[in-house]
UniProtKB/TrEMBL annotation, chain A:
Lineage: Archaea, Thermoproteota
Official protein name in the record: ABC transporter permease
Species of provenance: Thermoproteota archaeon
Keyword S-adenosyl-L-methionine attributed: no
Keywords from the named record: Cell membrane, Membrane, Transmembrane, Transmembrane helix
Topology class, membrane: Multi-pass membrane protein
A Pfam family recorded for this sequence: BPD_transp_2
Compartments reported by the entry: Cell membrane
GO MF assignments: transmembrane transporter activity
One GO cellular component, as annotated: plasma membrane
Entry's transmembrane regions: 20-40, 60-82, 94-110, 116-139, 148-166, 198-217, 238-258, 278-294, 299-318, 324-347
């Protein structure tokens, strides 16, 4: 008889945690490899090509960074909400709201110099994302409405809002009727590292926000309140911590950072509002995995967002160079999420296999 | 007409059991006098050794007390016997045969039943339905079938419960009875009771003891886990004393006394009587006027309660749990809305003004539910400043000062003897008793004006209890107003200056300490006083 028993284990050291995450990634690669094999592609060859084009060449690396910027911003924001145990599923919608606000500012504020226009776009993007996050927070704090449902549904409202704008009032006058807005003025476009599409301002914002949020969570009184409220809501109430404040502020930060990501995508990549799925490709959803894979540590989010940025680029490579369907990327993401969960289990529990032996004495 | 169904009918897998035992039949048969013999049991948790080569022998038909302080390893040992943990070393013999108990299911098959401190009942189901769970019954309407059987058992042992009542409607004492019934229905010959009296009123304790004796005389063997010396003396035939995971004494109860047991258990002499010096009374620090508060189900849980507590005074409220005490203190602490009435702290009206303003006025609150008082995933140091992190020097308006926080924590850890690897360790790694110390350290250390202490020594061992009571008396002599809520009448009597009794949401009477005794208070707690 074989019995599987889970026993609580001591909290892992940092090195152990790192080793387990590596194992879980290897496991995900293995699972995806089996699927590739079944599909008729040699996984080793495929991984080689993917690795070269993702991490092994300058254009590959730069594209990976481009994709990881919005992931990092959304991911860092989500760590704040998740630390407070507020399940924000709405980063995608908050990002799109940021994109809308940034486009609006760029198109309709007249001739402003770049040093005014760009900060104004980021401010508007942050404010719009924060507002989109504050609505479910408000409903949760005052009416105890489940934030998972509200944030999820508000993604669809945001998506449809973008569609409405590009088909309706904001449809470009110089775009021959295509459902896109006019291009934003040059003053609104972000400066890129030469030869790449890496928009410097957003990259700096992503790194800065990760450090600032880390300090916010670990070193400030508000971070303390977030951790108490997330760790034990009863104790937060008992200690006189305002739950309304924690919910509202953490969702404002979370949504605002996603809004910055949306601004970056408009001002750094697309230069106009277009189909929602072209602007975001699900960054706000992938960021959920990014945040959890980083164990809700905003500094580690930089690392995990690079990893998922790489996966996204890898998806292109698979599509373009290996002729594989887009679904493979989803399989990659899915397999990784599963192994993260497994890894999490391994970090918390000792798995004991017991095989019963008959005692013969 | 009642159909008689043999008890064994309900015990699933009994046949399998006999097969298992045959496997070991070639083992040397051990002394038949003992129904359970645990030999050389060792259990380690990480670096901590919870049971260090423990021997434990249970005779047939005896009530055996397992005595020890918190963390002495009593519950661990019994969890091993019940199959919740596997021992790292050691052997267990049941009825003289070597057995391996891998899960509670194995234990139940061997006739071992356990009643935990926290009940494992489904609140929304009826008593009969709860009893039917885990028994082999017919597919349709199992509760009816169980009822017939259970009635016999209830009559035999004098355990009376209304089988049709929903569990949530019952008192704690009744819930415990269901747990005992459940164990017996599953065929338990050996019954383990883990701190059974900690949740009961004095009257319920007497009831419990009565049917424990009856069960013992019917040949059931009972392990009574406790840290209360009085109960050991009152109920047990033999006693095994554990200290720090080791057996320090096994003796017949009739040949020992409380002082010897206390010394064995704690490892030093213990003072039972506390000296209560007269203290100077000041103005009322806490005043409650005609307070009405709703309970969780929307019923009126506190009805027209008025009292005042002066500085330098301990005001005790006795009463069976669930008579409005929890709602009352939560209202005072600002955690629960007041329907009508007023609460004043130091003369300031704080009615419905929220917990933070109450905290600012210097109210310390030791909550009934320890889970409310700490954050498991934060460090001991952070938990110790849970209510003070906004104050200098622990933070300026925005940034926390971890040097100050950790320095302060180190001081409290030493002063209150909190056993923790370091101030940076997560609070969830502490044992229950040490979490209690952490909460007490935080609440009792600061210059508060009012202390609300709900069961402050609940679950603490003799040594710590003595310490906490001394501390409360010290704060009293410093002029702090203390509201003490406890079900432990000894505690209320030894600490309070005035004693009130709560019954069904009302204060049914108030006595100065000198005029109060256990009998009167017990009568008032049962509601008889009011009706008289």
């Amino acid at each position: 008889m074989i019995e599987i028993k889970l026993e609580k284990r001591p909290p892992p050291s940092k090195i152990e945690a790192l080793i387990y995450s590596k194992i879980s990634v290897a496991f995900a690669l293995f699972v995806s490899g089996v699927i590739l094999k079944v599909y008729g592609v040699d996984p080793v060859e495929a991984y080689k090509i993917i690795a070269f084009n993702v991490f092994g060449s300058i254009p590959g690396i730069s594209e990976t960074i481009v994709k990881s910027i919005p992931l990092a911003l959304c991911g860092v924001g989500l760590t704040v909400a998740y630390r407070a145990k507020i399940w924000n599923i709405g980063a995608e919608g908050q990002l799109l709201l940021g994109a809308i606000a940034a486009t609006g500012v760029a198109l309709f504020t007249g001739d402003l110099p770049p040093y005014l226009l760009v900060p104004l776009m980021f401010l508007a993007g942050f404010a719009a994302g924060a507002m989109w996050g504050a609505i479910p927070a408000f409903l949760k704090a005052f009416f105890n409405v489940n934030e998972v449902i509200v944030t999820t549904m508000m993604n669809y409202i945001a998506i449809e809002l973008v569609r409405y704008l590009i088909y309706g009032p904001w449809r470009g006058s110089k775009e021959w009727g295509y459902p896109i807005t006019d291009e934003i003025p040059d003053a609104a476009k972000l400066i890129c590292i030469p030869g790449t599409r890496i928009h410097i301002a957003t990259l700096i914002l992503a790194i800065a926000s990760s450090i600032l949020v880390y300090i916010l969570i670990t070193r400030t009184t508000f971070g303390f309140e977030i951790r108490v409220a997330g760790g034990n809501p009863e104790a937060a109430k008992y200690a006189g911590i305002s739950y309304v404040k924690v919910v509202l502020l953490s969702m404002i930060i979370s949504g605002g950072l996603a809004g910055l990501a949306g601004t970056g995508e408009i001002a750094g990549i697309h230069y106009r509002l277009r189909y929602p799925e072209s602007i975001s490709m699900g960054y706000g959803f992938t960021a959920i995995i990014v945040a959890w894979l980083a164990r809700l540590n905003p500094i580690l989010v930089i690392v995990t967002s690079l990893f998922f940025g790489g996966l996204l680029v890898g998806g292109y490579v698979m599509k373009m160079m290996l002729g594989l369907p887009v679904a493979m990327v989803n399989i990659f993401n899915g397999a990784t999420l599963l192994s993260v969960l497994l890894c999490e289990l391994m970090l918390q529990y000792k798995v004991k296999l017991k095989i019963e032996r008959r005692k013969l004495t | 007409m009642e159909a008689k169904i043999p008890l064994s009918h309900f015990i699933s897998g009994e046949n399998k059991l006999s097969l298992n035992l045959n496997q070991h039949s070639h083992q040397a048969i051990r002394n038949e006098e003992y129904v359970v013999e645990m030999r050389g049991i060792v259990k380690r948790f990480l670096d901590v050794i919870a049971n260090d080569h423990v021997d434990f022998k249970l005779k047939k038909g005896e009530i055996h007390a397992l005595l020890g302080e918190n963390g002495a390893g009593k519950t661990t040992l019994m969890n091993i016997l019940y199959g919740i943990y596997m021992p790292d070393e050691g052997e267990i013999y049941v009825d003289g045969k070597l057995v391996e108990i891998r899960s509670p299911r194995d234990a139940i098959k061997l006739g071992i039943g356990m009643v935990h401190q926290h009940f494992m009942l489904v609140e929304t189901l009826s008593v009969a339905e709860n009893l039917a769970m885990g028994l082999k019954t017919s597919f349709l309407n199992p509760a009816e079938e169980v009822k017939l059987k259970v009635k016999d058992v209830m009559e035999k042992y004098g355990l009376k419960v209304n089988l049709d009542a929903k569990v949530w409607q019952l008192s704690t004492g009744e819930k415990q009875r269901i747990e005992i019934l459940k164990a017996i229905c599953r065929g338990a010959k050996i019954l383990i009771l883990d701190e059974p009296t900690s949740v009961l009123t004095p009257g319920e304790v007497r009831e419990l003891f009565k049917f424990l004796r009856r069960m013992a005389s019917e040949g059931k063997s009972i392990v009574f886990v406790t840290h209360k010396l009085k109960e050991v003396m009152e109920i047990s035939d033999r006693v095994t004393v554990l200290r720090k995971g080791k057996v320090v004494g096994v003796m017949e109860t009739s040949k020992t006394n409380e002082y010897e047991l206390a010394k064995l258990m704690v490892g030093r002499e213990v003072v039972f009587e506390l000296e209560k010096a007269p203290s100077k009374l000041t103005d009322p620090q806490l005043k409650v006027e005609k307070l009405n508060v709703l309970g969780d189900r929307g019923q009126l849980a506190v009805k027209d309660v008025s009292f005042e507590v002066r500085g330098g005074e301990i005001y005790g409220i006795a009463g069976v749990a669930g008579n409005g005490q929890r709602e009352l203190v939560e209202a005072i602490a600002g955690l629960r809305k007041v329907v009508s009435g007023k609460i004043y702290i130091g003369g300031v009206d704080v009615t419905n003004s929220g917990p933070s303003s109450v905290i600012k006025l210097g109210v310390a609150f030791i909550p009934e539910d320890r889970k409310m008082g700490f954050v498991p995933n934060m460090s001991v140091a952070e938990n110790l400043v849970l209510k003070k992190y906004r104050e200098n020097p622990f933070s300026n308006r925005f940034f926390l000062n971890y040097d100050a926080i950790e320095g302060y924590a180190k001081k409290l850890i030493e002063e209150y003897k909190i056993a923790t690897p370091s101030e940076k360790a997560l609070a969830k790694l502490l044992s229950g008793g040490n979490i209690q110390r952490l909460i007490l350290a935080r609440e009792l250390s600061s210059g508060s004006e009012v202390i609300i202490a709900v069961h402050p020594t609940y679950g603490l061992d003799v040594g710590s209890t003595e310490y906490v009571r001394r501390l409360l008396l010290k704060r009293r002599s410093e002029g702090v107003a203390i509201l003490l809520i406890s079900e432990d009448l000894d505690e209320i009597l030894s600490l309070s200056d005035r004693i009130a009794v709560m019954f069904e949401g009302r204060i049914v009477g108030e006595l100065p300490c000198e005029k109060a005794d256990i009998e009167t208070l017990g009568l008032m707690m049962s509601g008889a006083y009011e009706r008289r």
